[in-house]
Design goal:
single chain; 347 residues; mainly beta; ten-stranded parallel beta sheet; nine-stranded parallel beta sheet; globular
């Protein structure tokens, strides 16, 4: 198991000690505690009302101002009627049930801190319509409509997305934008999508210079085209991920981001024109610091480095983890996506 999973998956008491998961994140999202210090809230009803959510629904839980650790009473498919606006200090924990958010607008993490999303499937997300959406017990606001991202992280910090399945959405699968930082994206399974992961709002949004994101132990599966991730301006540590294929490129960027690719396992597509892992959206990129260490390249894949000096992540001791050599990645990512956890047994 990788360092995140070995922290909690060997314990058979996970269902009675759910909050211990919050201690297991590594990388820049290490401080994300979610609802660790809050009550358990049980979702019993998959119904959704964006304006007046009923107790027992997911939306009623995520908008509360107090910390909550949100779990699910049974398997359910939740089709949201508008974007789900998540408040600070929340954990959405799908362990023990098969939980899908699908076929409608999906998750918005905007202007908040300390959110953990674990063990759910988020797929076939649609754009949201302009309209009123409740974001707290006391506030309903007019929304302009969302783009159809599976998870949009906007002006937020201390965020961890772990062991989710993400696929087939109208826009991106995960966007980290508008000066969001302190984010870890780990153990997820991405598949069947074009623009997978965007880190950075635009080439001119210089506030994204603060952005630090760890992308680790994920599996980028079949049917993906580009942006795994695409980075603008900020910093990304991309470590111990498995890339089954890409149609255009795997790791890209613009506006002088810094990228450290460490111990990844890249399997290039058969198309001879798409063997390069990297893509720069600029002509003056030779001084951008993009480096590769301990990566494994299969089927003719290759990484074009640039810049000078070390770009290793300056993690604190608590954030730090040792990236394994790339040849170990198929094992380290073999359980990416939601786990089938049974009460009383290790996951």
């Amino acid at each position: 198991m990788n360092v995140i999973d070995s922290c909690w998956r060997t314990r058979s008491n996970w269902a009675t000690n759910r909050r211990a998961l919050a201690d297991c994140v590594v990388g820049f999202g290490k401080a994300a505690i979610g609802g660790k210090y809050g009550a358990i809230y049980v979702v019993t009803n998959p119904y959704d009302d964006p304006i007046n959510p009923a107790p027992g629904t997911l939306r009623y839980g995520v908008i509360q101002t107090s910390p909550l650790w949100i779990i699910f009473a049974r398997d359910m498919v939740i089709t949201l009627k508008n974007e789900l606006i998540v408040n600070s200090f929340k954990t959405i924990d799908g362990r023990g049930a098969k939980v899908e958010i699908a076929y409608g607008p999906c998750i918005t993490v905007q202007g908040v801190t300390n959110v953990i999303i674990h063990g759910i499937s988020i797929h076939d997300c649609k754009p949201g319509k302009a309209g009123m959406v409740r974001s707290s017990p006391t506030h309903v606001g007019k929304r302009e409509g969302c783009d159809g991202d599976a998870i949009s992280i906007f002006a937020s910090s201390n965020i961890w997305v772990d062991h989710c399945y993400l696929a087939r959405s109208a826009d991106g699968l995960i966007d980290v934008i508008r000066a969001s930082t302190a984010v870890t994206i780990s153990n997820n399974y991405f598949t069947q999508h074009d623009k997978v992961m965007l880190l950075g709002h635009s080439d001119k949004f210089t506030a994204d210079k603060v952005m630090k994101v760890t992308v680790a132990f994920n599996r980028f599966g079949e049917g993906l085209i580009e942006r795994m991730p695409r980075v603008r301006i900020g910093y990304a540590h991309v470590a111990n991920n498995r890339y089954d294929e890409w149609k255009m490129y795997a790791i890209g960027g613009s506006a002088n981001p810094t990228i450290f690719s460490e111990g990844n396992y890249f399997i290039a597509p058969d198309n001879s024109a798409s063997k390069e892992v990297t893509k720069r959206e600029a002509s003056n990129w030779r001084n951008w610091t993009w480096q590769s260490s301990k990566d494994v390249f299969k089927n003719g894949a290759y990484f074009v480095p640039s810049g000078y000096g070390s770009c290793a992540p300056r993690y604190t001791r608590a954030q730090s983890f040792k990236a394994a050599p790339g040849y170990m990645v198929p094992a380290l990512t073999s359980d990416a996506g939601p786990l089938r956890c049974l009460v009383g047994k290790a996951c």
